Amino acid sequence: MFKFERHLGYLFLGFILVFSFAVVTTYIVPEVSAKNITETTETVHYTDQQKEGRQIYMREGCVWCHTQMVRTGEENLGTIFRRGDIGQVTSPEWYATQNPVLIEQHRRGPDLSHVWTRWPSISWQKMHLQNPEQFNPGTWMPPFSYLSNKDQDDLLAYLQTLR
Questions:
Q1: Are residue 53 and residue 107 in the same domain, yes or no?
Q2: Which of 43, 50, 53, 83 is 20 to 30 A away from residue 161, measured at CA?
Q3: For residue range 18-61, what is the model confidence (pLDDT) as tens digits?
Q4: Are both 53 and 131 inside the same structural domain?
Q5: How far does the signal peptide extend, from start to end residue (predicted)?
């Protein structure tokens, strides 16, 4: 019969090893890897207006439906407008100045990584922001017409960085 009292040391050692492995793989390795990411020409440095727009993007919950990361294998996917317009695969260096990084994992709406290269007109973006149903009937996106003009302009300034 197995007696736990005789093997508590081994059980404790096993627990410590499993816990240490979990800490190393979920915290230490990603933290060290993130410090090795350097800026490139693709890294965005935000203006004050763009920083405000990014805050509005987070505050209004855009991040819950829109990803900002084109994954490998998705670069040739299309959206409702045309095939292949989702953009190139994103790179970690693009996010070097972001805190927090807004890549997300759930995608109810389109990926916004390269949104400004797909629909570069400010007037179109503003009309879509105020009444998305007009452009995409049945969309889940709520209208953001309640935002002040300044907040809308700040949000659009942030979206312009997503090229």
A1: yes
A2: 83
A3: 999 998 888 888 777 767 777 777 778 899 999 999 999 999 99
A4: yes
A5: none
Tell me the residue type at 161: T
Domain range spanning residue 12?
4-35
Helix, strand, coil tally for the chain in percent (to 5): 50, 0, 50
Q: Using alpha carbons only, give the angle 41, 103, 86 rounded to the nearest 5 degrees.
A: 75
Answer yes or no: pTM beyond 0.90: no
In sign, the C-alpha dihedral spanning 140, 145, 151, 155 is positive
For residues 30 and 53, state if they share a domain.
no
Question: What pLDDT was estimated at residue 142?
Answer: 95
Q: What is the pLDDT of residue 145?
A: 96
The tokens 């953009």 sit on which residue?
87
Which residue numbers in the chain have pLDDT < 70?
Answer: 1-2, 34, 71-87, 104-105, 120
Domains: count for the chain:
2
What ranges in the chain are assigned the alpha helix state H?
8-23, 29-35, 48-59, 115-118, 122-130, 132-135, 149-159
